[in-house]
Design a protein that fits this description.
about 230 residues, mainly alpha, Rossmann fold, 3 strands, about 30% helix, elongated, Glyco_hydro_3_N_sf
Length: about 230
Amino acid sequence: MLGHHYTSTFLETAVASMNAGCNLELSYGMRNNVFMHIPQALAMGNITLQMLRDRVRPLFYTRMRLGEFDPPAMNPYSTLDLSAVQSPEHRNLSLEAAVKSFVLLKNVRGTLPLRARDLPGKRLAVVGPFADNPRVLFGDYAPVPEPQYIYTPRRGLETLPADVSFAAGCHEPRCQQYSRAEVVGAAGAADVVVVCLGTGTDVETEAKDRRDLSLPGHQLELLQDAVQ
């Protein structure tokens, strides 16, 4: 109603939402929110009691599965404390999820994977605004881990038996100020170049959309300089 002007009143919005299958509202703390108009919509015949029951049923089924209506002693979630956060078990599961979700678009001449046994004496360059900036590595709504658990690409690659050099080229995702000499110097002397690019929440988040999918600022230029 407010942003897209699809509806003109809260009542109309409640009816449209219910018809679309929505059963939960993020109300921003308003006392008179959209779904407070459901009784009026029901009384006016805009929705039926059966529809209301159909919307409520999965909502409360989920709440019951979460144990919200059980005594705390019966709810396994109530026993969780900060010791479960970033525990070795959960960190290992996160690592497994990351490994299994990688998407490899092209692997010319079998360049990947890099094997530790092949790296002694090799020179690696890791470049780009995402190479060693922990702040930009986490997407919208992502919790930020404790610094000791954050491995930037540079920090991770430096654990390998190789000579690792680093050049950001630009120090934030918008990449408005770019040092070509810095990137060319690091990449030109390397056997393997890892280029770390992207957008991050500085460029796109919820309610901060982009008109295209191109790399921001001078990032494409940085990529071309690194691989030429």
